Every structure is written in C-alpha cells, then in structure tokens.
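Predict the 3D structure for this chain.
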Amino acid sequence: MGARSPVFSPSGKRTMKNFLTPGIALFCLLALGGPVAGGASAQQYNPADPIPPDPEVTTGTLANGLTYFVHVNDEPENRAELRLVVNAGSILEDEDQLGLAHFVEHMAFNGTENFEKLELVNYLESIGMQFGPDVNAYTSFNETVYMLQLPMDDPEVLATAFQILVDWAGGILFDPEEVDKERGVVIEEWRGRRGGMARIQDEQIPFLFHGSRYVERLPIGDTDILANAPTERLRRFYEDWYRPDLMAVIAVGDFDGDAIETMIRESFGGLQGPDNPRPRGETEVPVDHPPLVTIATDPEMPQTQVGVLYKQPASPRGTVADFRTARVRSLYSGMLNDRLRELTVQADPPFLFASASGGGSFIRGADASEFFAGVAEDGIERGLDALLTEAERVARHGFTASELEREKASLRRSYESRLAEAENRTSGSLASRYISVFLNDIPYPSVETEVALLEAVLPGITLEETNAYAQGWLTERGRVIVVAGPEKEGLVTPTAEDLTAVFAAVSEREIAPYEDAEVEAPLVAEIPEGSPVVSEETVDEIGVTIWELGNGVRVVLKPTDFRDDQVIFSATSPGGYSLASDEVLRSAELASMLVNQGGVGEFDQIALGKKLTGKRASASTGVGSLTESVSGSASPQDLETAFQLIYLRFTEPRKDETAFAAWKAQMTGMMANMGATPEMVFNDTVSTVMSQGHPRSTATLADALQQLEEANLDIAYDFYRERFADASDFTFYFVGTFDLEGIRPLVETYLGGLPNLGRTEMWVDHGMDPPPGVIEKVVRKGVEPQSRTMIAFTGDGEYSIEESTVIRAMADILQIELRELLREDLGGTYGVGVSGSISYRPDEEYRVQIQFSSDPERAEELAAVVFEEIERLKAEGPDPETVAKVRETDRRTKETSLQQNGYWLGQLSAYGNLGLDIRMIPSYDRIESWTAEQVQEAAIRYLRTDQYAKFVLLPENKIG
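Done. Predicted structure below.
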C-alpha cells in the first residue's frame, strides 16, 4: 500500500460557514414556509419524505459487500479515527462457542498475518497512542467493533493503520500457544465483572429477554468453554462471520477524503467471503407477552431498585414523520422526568432518584419505555406506587401548557447548541454515530437538517398530542416489573402478587391534576453596582489577560476558538473546611452540598430549574478540604445568567429545610447497604490505614455515616456564608468563546459586586499523614472467586513541575511493563493500573499506586512479579522502547490538549495555585526534559521496599 501525500496536507482549517450546504438550504426553505408543516402552523411538509443524509459524509459499498463511511473533520486537528465494524457478535455463537465472539476480538491483538504477538500494540504505542483510550475493541450481542486513533503527520502511520484493519478483517492467526495464553486474560475479564450486581443480572436476563436467544448469549460467555475450547472453534466463528458483507470501515478525521476513500477501496477490495456464507438472520425479542415479574436479591447488592419495562416493536426512524414522532416521545419523557424530579425534593421522598423514558432502543429490533427508581430498602412498593401514580396522572389529566412550553424551549435550545457546535464535533463521536448507522440502518442527517426539521415540526406538536401519547403504552402486554435489592435478615421483599396489586390500587385511586407553580420574579432582584477593573496585565504568549477589580477579585481570561458555544470557568480561595473546628466539622464538610441544593434567592431547586429553562448556564460552589471554589459553564449568549448565578451563590444562598430533609432521607437510603459490597469494605480498609484513622478523615463509609448523623443545616449554612463572605482572595478563571470587550461589563458588575472583607486566609494542615514503614493487610469479603491487590508507596517528597513529570512518567512506564508481564506473558489479570503523583498541599508527599485484579490463587504470585519488576527497574532502568512510547504519548496528548478549553482551565488554575509562570503551559520542554536515568532514580527514590502498604482483597472462603 503506497502512501498518498494529499491525505496528509488538508488545506487549512475546514469551515462550512461560507457556503450553503443542502442541510442549510433545507433550513432556509422551512423557515420561509416551504413544504414542511407542523400541525396548526402554516408550514407544510410531506411526512413520508426520507430524512436526507449528511452531504459531508461519503459512503459506499465495495463489490465484495463491504460498506464504508468517510467524513473529513478536524476536531481534533492532525488526528484520524478508524473503525472496523463487524455485524456479528455473541448472538451468532453456536452452542459450543459461548464467549468465543469476544475471545476472537482478544485474539486480534495477539498475532495477525503482518503483526506478531505484541507487535501491533507496541507499534501503536510507539506513535503515541495509548492501549485503551486510543486502541481498543468491544464485543456485544450483535456486533464487534475495533477502534484506532492515529496521528496524521506521517504517511507510513496511516498505511500501517489500514494494514492493521485489513489484518483484523481477514488475517487473525489464532496461534494455539497465544490462544492458551489469552484464555487467562479473557477469564480474568469475566472474573472482574462478577459480584452482587452480576448475580442480579443473571436472574433478570431471562425476564428482560424473555423468549429469545439473547438469554443464552451474553457476550462474556461460558468459562468452561473459554478455558477449554480448541483453537479451531474460534477460527470457525471468525471464518463464518468476519466477512466483507458484514463489515464496515469508518474513517473520520483531518485528512483528504478522496484519498482515504481510494485507500479503503484498494485495501479492502481484495477481501473475500466464504463461498457458501451462513445466513446472518436477526434475533427477535418477543414484545407481546403476558406481564412478567423478576425479583432478585443478593447479600452484596448495595441499593434497592424498582422499575417497569414496556417492550414494543422497534419504531421506524427513516422519515420526517418518524422524526416528529421521536420528538413527541422526547417531550413526553422530559416533562414526566421533571415531575419525578420534583418528588425527590419532598421532605419524605418516595424514592431516592427516578427516571422515565417514553420509548427508545432496547435491543436490535425492539424498543422499550420504562420507569426506574432507586428506593429505600423497605420502600419498593411505595416507590413503585409513586412512579405509577405520576404516569397515571399524566394519562388521566395530561400535562399543562406551561410544562410543554418549557420542554419545547429546552429541546429547541439543545438543538441550537448542537448547531453552534456543528464544526466542533469530535471525530470520535462522529465515528460512534456511523457505527450505529451501519448496524441499525438509521438515517444520518447533518446537524443543519436536524435543526431545520425540528423548527418545522416542533411548533405543530400540541398539548393534546403529547397527552394522547401518554395513554398509548401503559398496558400489561410486554410488561416486565424489575426489582433488585439486598438480601439480609429481617428485610422482607414484596412478592410478585404484592407488586401487581400496586398497579390495581393506582388504577382505582382518585388522582388530582398536577399544578404547575412558576416564579415570575427576576433571577437577580437588584443588579449590583459592581466595581471596575483597576489593573490589567496581558500574557501575549498564551493569549491571556489578567484583571484585578476594585474589590480585590482577580480574573484570568483566555478567549479561544476551540468551541463555538462554550465558556467554562472556575475560581478558588484558600481555606475550605480545614478552617472548621472539630465540633462543626461534619456539617462544614457538607456545607456546599446542602446549601446548593436549596437554590438561590427566591428560587428553590425546582423553581430555579424552571427559571433557567432554555438557557445553558450553570454555576455551583464547593467547600473542599483546603479551598472553597466556584465552577460552571455557559453558552456565550447566556453568559450573563452564569454571572448572575455566581453572584447569587455568594450573596443569596438559600437555606431550605425541605430540601435538607429530602437529602437526608436519600442519603439514609443510599448508604443503608453500601457496606455489603467487597469493594466498599476493601476501600474503607485502605482509607483507614492510609489516614492512620485520623479523626478528620472523610474517606470511609463510617465517616459518611457520621456526617449523616451529625449533619446540621444551620451549622452548614453559617459555615458556607462565612466561607463565601469575602471574595477578595478569589481568583476566577474564564476560558472559551467570548471577547474581552463583551465580558468586561459582566465581570465588573457581578464579580465586582461580590463582597470584600479584605481577609488574608490560608488552609490549616491537620497532619493527616500516611503511615510509616511496611504494612500488609488482607481483607476477606465476598463470595466470588476474585481478588484485588493494591500496593501504595508513600512518603515525603519535594514538589516541582519537573519532579511531578518524572514520577508520572515512571508510573506510565511501569504500567506498560507490568501489563506486558502480568497480562500478556502470564495471563494473570485483565489490566494493571499504575499512577504516580506528588502533592504540594497541605504537605509535599509522593504517592505511587499499583492495582490489579486476579484469581485469588494467583494474587501472591502476581504481587511477587510486581516487586521483581520494581527491583529490575531500579537496577537496570527502563526499557528504551518503553521510554520512547511514553514520551511520544505525552507529546501526542499535549497536541490535542492544547486545543481543549478544559485543559487550559485546569492548567491556568493549577499554575495559579502553585504560583508558577503560566507562560510555561504550552511548552513541550518538560516532555523532552526527563531522561531514562531520572526515571531510574525516581524508582529508587519512590518505590522503596521499606515504605509501602499492600492490601489484598480475598473472598471470605479463601484459606491462607
């Protein structure tokens, strides 16, 4: 395959704003009253018209049946996303192949015609792509998808990437030795998913997929088959189902589209399928069956849940009429969810959380509408009653005109935002879209077309229409009641008869219409006088301006063009609940949570949500251990609303006794059984040991329960007011789509109007230090044959940007080396995680953490290998190839990060808190500055075998 230079030199940053695409043309036609209509509106449309495809997407089918999609997109710049989609998953497995569709996917990374074992991953890591985020695959019931992200500045990289896709499509080797090695990895993936939730799922699946093959075809499969299936059985699945007529190649990125299309045709045109292909039928899920009830309990289930599923035939999605029907469903779901949300903030809520959907894809060929709620362990019937009552209330009395008006405004605003960001959609998100298009045969209109269709149909959707929709699907046919909860002594779970009786009781009950309460007051009753900018500094190297206001507030601003509809912001001030006394600590820790949920000014939480309908603006406050903070985001057109929310969070927080009671009831229900899970017991042990049981620790379930018991709204509110009484030591950071001239009046008015007491504060170090020496703990909890090992190296360090970079590089190098040892060579774990950092407050401390899961019988063996590799790293230093991989990954990550608002906000804030020169943020120097010798020295310095804690989770019945 030859390299083609036009692929690598796109003509500058692409823009579609200078000419009229078919989607925009359609929008103009509709706006002018063309042949598209919405009910009573004057506009007309033909409901049978097919939804047109996005003209920016090139698609086609090769002679061998392979489909392709090509979309030129420069978000992020200099990157491409490639996908190989196989319309075959576990549903196609024969009885002796359960789990082998997924196993085949694993083998794609373990030897192909052109890439030996590990060579493929090694190559991709050498060009800066990470195994996991950038290189991955998944297998589901109906499909297997392979994913690559790659840089576009080297022709050889693209040529090699296409060769990888071709090999996956037709050149996986299935070397018997590698198959046997990979068995352990696949089984470890199965093992890692086991637990209370998995056992609950095992009981629910036969009801959810009642009467279908899906019940017998979970992708993870049968462990006996995974452990013993001969290689030929995997090859049989591969040869039967990996064939061009069941495949799509998707390419989205910053490239020349014509050249990419040519490469696809040349690379994949030679693939051939079998002479007598097995028919790829579709598996149906019966949707017309008598009502079913599944009640599943487990000792390790942390929460109680109740839901009702109504299965329906899959809705068509190809025409304008289908688009309109889907918007009716969306409006119904949004309004019903708003009503359910109101119930959660009652003083004694019937559920902890709840959601509803008026219809959506359930599985290929079937849709489902559903209600779902998390409830108190003894509140299943009450929660179900509340869900059904709200659905019945809508069915009998409908929604109100004001509810529909708000939901339409919200829907319209979301589409406007999508249109504004149309050119900023990431290549990864677009690739995911085309996966669904190929697998489900759905339309893929441009954003312009979608907005045009919405504006055409939305005005004509009437209240009567949405109310009529509410009456169409609450039937017994196809209904499944789903209950899951803890199993423990003294707790009585309702029977199927009890649950069915709730339906009868609700249907016979008098139910009053819903009353929609609105607050007409302005968000800010009196606009503050504010204070002006008194000093200005510009940092031209990175496009940053710094203002200081008359009230002492400092504002750091970076206008960008990365997004068209986004401004994000944050602010910090030293102090936090480190300044709280022991007597008020537990309430102080909850201060921001309890006060934020009360709303602001005259608006409680629900009224505030209604007031903000149709706006994209948010601002919330936080009180952490060492700082108080503000964070939020806004559309440029709603930026003043965000500033008003900031102002109100400081000056008019709202103390709401009802919201506090609702929160306490919710937390009580959520935490009642959290201690039943092995993960919680293990994490609590780690936290207790690493904090040495410090009385101000907030990391354990016991700490959370103490918070709940001692929570006092008055104390929390007073502490919050005290923390936000003085804005003069706050620094605000704004990044996104704004100009300095436009944002300045908002800054001066609302931030300049914040209170100024002139305080100088600093957080307090309460001495929560990690334990000295060596500690080893074994935690026994759970019944599944699974183990988790965590090793933490901690101690005093010296913080600097350079040292922080070196310790992180050391951790990244160690993670790659341990993955190759523990997973690839030994087949002992599904994955290894290694992290390394140095904190700079309240103390300068380092922490390197290594985690992996495994068979309990192999936990000690694998831990020993970890320590052996650590000693090798200290003695010999890192492998040069691994060093090159990590360095290149850093460089590639930096390339894309510099195009992201979130990266700049985080870096500006971090550098500001450290007192560092923000001009250094875009520098690549520190990526190139660390050396293999420094990594080796860091391993000697930080991976000390006389200073670590090792924790192992084993099942309760494990001996030894």
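Confidence is low (pLDDT under 50) at residues 1-43.
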